[in-house]
Amino acid sequence: MHVSLTDKLDEYVRDKVASGLYNNASEVIREALRQKIATEQSDADKLRQLREALDPAWAQADAGACVPFDLTAILSELDQETAAHA
User: What three-state secondary structure class fits 70?
Assistant: First the structure.
């Protein structure tokens, strides 16, 4: 496999190897890919959890069981909380 890197990425990889943290460029690239995979899995897990948390609310909205939304009351409550913490 051949991988082309930008000059900036190539310099980053070379710096990591020169630092002694890695024995060669392949180790740097493998570690970067492992971290990318972990991040993507974490993001997918977070999205799944968010969707699971929202599902009951969507079902409630679809059933017409929503509580009326009073923006003025919400903003007033936030103003009071802000003033209390000031």
Answer: coil
Dihedral sign for Cα atoms in the order 21, 26, 27, 28: positive
CB 32 within 8 A of CB 9: no
The residue behind tokens 């460029």 is 25
Q: In this structure, are residues 20 and 12 in contact, taking their beta carbons and an 8 Å threshold?
A: no
pLDDT (tens, 9 = 90+) of the chain, 86 residues, equals 888 999 999 999 999 999 999 999 999 999 999 999 999 999 999 999 999 989 888 888 888 777 777 889 999 999 999 999 87
**How far, in Å, CA of 69 to CA of 66, rounded?**
9
* Inter-residue contact 25 to 33 (CB < 8 Å): no
